[in-house]
Specification:
Blueprint (H helix, E strand, L loop, with lengths): L3 E4 L4 H7 L2 H9 L9 H4 L6 H8 L3 H10 L2 E4 L1
Parallel strand pairs: 1-2
């Protein structure tokens, strides 16, 4: 089985490129801007999930748990 890994040190752009479903998961968690055209290619290139969580005031542990529930392994 292929392990799906979310490396929290990678940019949101990199993660979404590796795992396209990450875009939907993040949008469902409250990162609505990620679905706007061009946003992923611009801000997503330097934004990490922890930085985004701080900006949007979304609990990082909740984000991690959502990815774990979706079958991902978390690397910080």
């Amino acid at each position: 089985m292929n392990t799906k890994i979310i490396d929290l040190n990678k940019s949101v752009f990199e993660l979404c490129k590796e795992h396209p479903e990450v875009t939907t998961i993040l949008a469902d968690l409250g990162f609505k801007d990620i679905t706007k055209p061009g946003m992923l290619a611009t801000a997503g290139r330097f934004m990490t999930i922890p930085k985004g969580a701080t900006m949007k005031k979304i609990n990082l542990n909740e984000i991690k748990q959502t990815f774990i529930n979706a079958g991902y392994e978390i690397r910080d």
